[in-house]
Amino acid sequence: MTEKTTVLASILGSEQVPAHLARSVIEEKVRAAIYDGRLPCGMAIRQQELATLFGVSRMPVREALRQLEAQGLLKVVHHKGAVVAPLVNHDSVETYALRMLLECEALRLSIPFLEESDFAYAQDCIERLELTGDYVEISQLNRAFHYTLYKRADNRRLLQLVDEGLIEEERFLRFNLEAMGLRKLAQDDHRQLIEAARQRDIPLATQLLREHLQRGVDAITRHLANTQRQDQQG
């Protein structure tokens, strides 16, 4: 086993995975390690190394990496193959801007049809978010919270696009909550959003959602500006 494989094994572990579960297991393990920072940005993820670790052919590994690339977690670099993508880049701002349009429309359409069980589930997501420091769980709960408030929108294509955006947003979550210290603000935003939706106040709810997403845009913009200045000074 090569040195790189040893490093990857220490991060992901090694196990024999049934062939029919290989793609999903590998995808989830690599995703979790990217979210919590164990797989750092720029680290190469070799197909053969993963196949060896999990005792499978390269086909399910290739499929898993393709899914992670589609989610923005990996990028293909010439002569290196798949590497862990930066947590934040210039596309991040555009992603948030698109999310703002799509999610505000989904929330607007959904609010009149939300049920008390939806509010209760969204509240439960907030309470569970308070109790965990696991970024995989945080990302899943954050996505569940938002989607619960949007899911009554009577537009399946819109909801599909919204869900794709929420999946892509998970790669920014650790940056926004940890590096930029937005965790408490995010939770406050969530509570206010539930209350406005419960009151069926669509203008207020969509305004709160825009402000919530704008915090992410502002944090990323500041980070990119600081990074550019540091690069220029270096």
UniProtKB/TrEMBL annotation:
UniProt keyword Transferase present: no
Alphabetical UniProt keywords: DNA-binding, Transcription, Transcription regulation
Gene3D superfamilies, per database record: GntR ligand-binding domain-like (1.20.120.530), Winged helix-like DNA-binding domain superfamily/Winged helix DNA-binding domain (1.10.10.10)
Any Pfam family the entry gives: GntR
HTH gntR-type domain ranges (all copies): 20-87
Keyword Glycosyltransferase: no
PROSITE patterns membership: HTH_GNTR
Domain of life of the source: Bacteria
Name recorded for this polypeptide: GntR family transcriptional regulator
